[in-house]
Amino acid sequence: MNLIEKVKQNIRLSFDEAVSLYDLDLFTLGELADERRKALHGKQTYFNINRHINPTNICKDVCKFCAYSASRKNPNPYAMSHDEILAITDDIVSRGIREVHIVSAHNPDTGLEWYLEVFSKIKAAHPQLHIKALTAAEVHFLAEEYGKSYDEIIDLMISNGVDSMPGGGAEIFDEKVRDYICKGKVTSAQWLEIHRKWHERGMKSNVTMLFGHVEERHHRIDHMMRIRDLQDATGGFNCFIPLVYQSENNFLNVKEYITAHEILKTMAISRIVLDNVPNLKAYWVTSTVNLALVAQEFGANDLDGTIEKESINSAAGAKSANGVNLEEFVALIKNSGFTPVERDSLYNTIKVW
Ligand code: V47
Q1: Contact (Cβ atoms closer than 8 angstroms) between residue 154 and residue 198
Q2: Which residues lie with the beta carbon below 6 Å from any ligand 1 atom?
Q3: Residues 45-75: tens digit of each pLDDT
Q4: Structural domain boundaries enclosing 53
Q5: Which residue, by CA, sits nearest to atom 28 of ligand 1?
Q6: Is the Cα dihedral 180, 181, 186, 190 positive or negative?
Q7: Number of domains in the chain
Q8: Which of 55, 72, 73, 146 is the most buried (most CB within 10 A)?
């Protein structure tokens, strides 16, 4: 049976077959991915009304692709106080925002207690606000720094109010590429182990892939295969988020930028290969809003959210520092022929706009 027929019949692809999907033309891939999207979500496109908080940019790790952490290219170290964070959460809740996404650099002076306390203070003040916090890279950092096991850190996160884990820190799982772009931080096996443990407690998380830098196509497929294997075992991933590499103010010297054509191919292939992950997010922050809207035709069914404030990707050139306006966002989804569906953090429908 040929590859296209296999995809049409929902037959799971091997690594080699998945790599050869890239040989298909973009529109064929788009049609195949769109079939999968339609079967799962029809014309619905999810988004949520959320707010990112990045409490500190002081980091003990040096990832070549990162423009956010304080370094000689970004000599602006900061660390927020609990009061500053609580003022933000008070404000966002009063404006109807339902999710706070808290991700930081690996700051040795921001202690484990500092995080646990801020989570429990937020939860005490706003029990209904969903806290999506700490990437597996941060869990690993905190475990090492404070001599705790992953199990202990995870249990502390849960008992202090964290509701789900974001997908950051996955980067690219291939060990050689990973060593080149972010040597010294959480390894691929550790990243996957942390999410496995999180899922084993009945909790949900997301998974990202940083692409468009020095990796090759087969590295992306390898990344997807490792996710597919873990998802078979746990079912705990809600969403796959391919993050397009942003090139400014960092130490990764990428000469040739990825094309929109290659980004859309990768989106479509993720939808086809990750047959067990229900949602595929076109993260407008790294793809641009325009391409994220087009990606709806290539398998994507989620556009993240309004975000309000974003520091990690905007430091590297993304035009996301101030988020997007809700009405405008909804109108863009509608005008591109899809139905905007406001969701909560766990993909329950809140409102069909
Ligand atoms: O892990 C850092 C990435 C991630 C760059 O789970 C870069 O819903 C592109 O994970 N170019 C953090 N990307 C953001 C993240 C995320 C975002 C939105 C939603 C969710 C979710 C997760 O940002 C990091 C890293 O992979 N990143 N630098 C850069 N130059």
Answers
A1: yes
A2: 65-67, 103, 135, 166-169, 171, 206, 208, 210, 241, 243, 245-246, 250, 283, 286, 304, 312-313, 316
A3: 999 988 999 999 999 998 999 989 997 777 8
A4: 16-352
A5: 66
A6: negative
A7: 1
A8: 55
